[in-house]
Write a structure and sequence with these properties.
2 copies of one chain form a homodimer. The first copy, chain A, is an alpha/beta fold. The first copy, chain A, has 6 helices and 12 strands. In chain A, α1 packs across α6. The longest helix of chain A has 22 residues. Chain A is globular and about 60 Å long. Chain A starts with 5 loop residues before the first strand and ends in a 5-residue tail after the last strand. The interface between A and B is medium-sized, with 34 and 34 residues.
Chain lengths: 293, 293
């Protein structure tokens, strides 16, 4: 593994996810907190206008604006398209990286705890994830790369990943999640420092992770209007097994809809506010245990 | 007390408060649920465009658009100003009521449980509140009338009140709060029916309620930027006593700020997402017990 020279911490990629945005504000005021002897750490407020407005985005989702071809497309000119290109200028991309690690801070209304969202099976990321989940049982690890390349900000860097925390409402700064995320960031930076010193912290040689396999939308009527809600027995049960026949939705008129899959899955992002407009009531994952790397 | 002839249930006055908006959708589909033998119940989706957009409002807060003089002011022409005038045409006002009771459904990111927000000490409202809190211990009662008249939708009717439920994130339909709110509405309607029948349900002759006395903003710097968050010991502690010297905020750099008031107060709307832009970190109330009416 080559030396880590530069780490970027991004917050506020979604303007109403305050945990990350205010951590960036803190690190801007107290930059020594994130410096380590062997590498430089820089901060970036992802979407300043959306943060100022307290909205997820101004024109479109910034964290879906990083397809390579879109970054090269000069006809795309919404606020977020322009912002994505500016971030690309700062951070480079996989082929021409200005940074070695990107940590992109997000929050969710789902009960995701402290989740690491990985976009690749890079051995270094897997070792880091294994270490973090071994020192903090609240840490969960997901692999959510789409097949056709990624439009996520984290994809600008081979060692890019997301820290996703919750449940926390949009537009709210919650001290508990602020502190837990801050502590996790320091653990990551300390880990990277030790790697640079040649003493990679020991961790289990296994990793439990959750592999994205698809999404489920809310039941809707012919006009696209939602006709059922997440079943109360499933709400806040992210990362727990969902077995065929288990309650999944409750219709407005009180009927239970059961999960009709053929095997046990592990839903995540259950009832994430920002995914209603994407037609996603939850994401489904498969639990993978004892993956050796 | 004169007979109740018509009740209006309003939901989605704020478009991203889904509990009320989806209850209106349910009652539109199943109107018999809210009809009672002696009166008519009508429903109203407060802010359809904001609900469709998943936002609190389009141009301005609809639930601050009901000052009498604003309703008469033809120069006010934002979407919500026009919508407020349309609602006023439907419901009338205190002097010319088309309805006898307004129930306006809201949700909050604060831990408000099932709160009744009253704008007057009308004996009928106090008796109703006393009854509801006696049959359901989760019900809390607040008196939040501003001194200079009200710009709330509920103020269009002498017997108007708000049901405020939470904690629930903006833009999320949560089944538990949906069901609790629905049940409370039926309890209200059944109570009104019994009043019309001349058999007012018995309840304690006392009422515990929380009287609004003011607001506290987040600590901010010279640019208006928030420099501290709700202290983790205060988060979700709505309706609990806050005594001088108790932790109230935690600065971004980790310092505790204590409450400097001179007497014990009971904060509500602690960390309500929609109040950041209003400069409100929480509202303070005084607890009043054994109020006899």
């Amino acid at each position: 593994m080559h030396k880590i020279n530069r780490v970027t911490i991004v917050g506020g990629t979604h303007g109403n996810e305050f945990t990350g945005a205010f951590l960036i504000k803190k690190f801007e005021q107290l930059p020594d907190l994130i410096q380590r002897p062997s590498f430089e750490t820089i901060t970036l407020l992802g979407n300043p206008q959306a943060f100022a407005a307290g909205k997820r985005y101004i024109d479109k989702d910034l964290n879906r604006a990083f397809f390579s071809e879109d970054l090269q497309n000069s006809t795309l000119s919404s606020y977020e398209d322009i912002r994505a290109k500016a971030i690309y200028q700062i951070l480079g991309d996989k082929n021409q990286s200005q940074v070695d690690v990107i940590i992109d801070l997000h929050s969710t209304t789902a009960n995701m705890g402290l989740s690491l969202m990985l976009g690749s099976y890079h051995p270094f990321l897997l070792q880091l994830a294994s270490y973090l989940s071994s020192v903090n049982p609240e840490v969960k690890v997901c692999y959510t790369q789409a097949e056709k390349g990624s439009n996520f900000l984290r994809s600008l860097c081979e060692l890019g990943f997301v820290i996703e925390v919750g449940p926390v409402a949009q537009g709210v700064l919650n001290a508990e999640w602020f502190q837990k995320t801050e502590k996790l960031i320091y653990t990551v930076l300390d880990y990277l420092e030790r790697c640079n010193q040649g003493s990679i912290p020991e961790s289990e040689n296994t990793l439990t992770f959750y592999q994205f396999i698809g999404t489920i939308d809310f039941p809707r009527n012919e006009y696209g209007e939602i006709q059922a809600m997440i079943h109360p027995q499933l709400q806040f049960r992210d990362y727990e097994p969902l077995t065929p026949g288990d309650p999944i939705f409750l219709t407005l008129d009180g009927k239970t809809i059961s999960y009709e899959g053929t095997s046990t899955v592990y839903p995540i992002f259950i009832n994430e506010a920002a995914y209603y407009e994407k037609g996603i009531a939850m994401c489904l994952t498969e639990k993978q245990i004892d993956f050796r790397f």
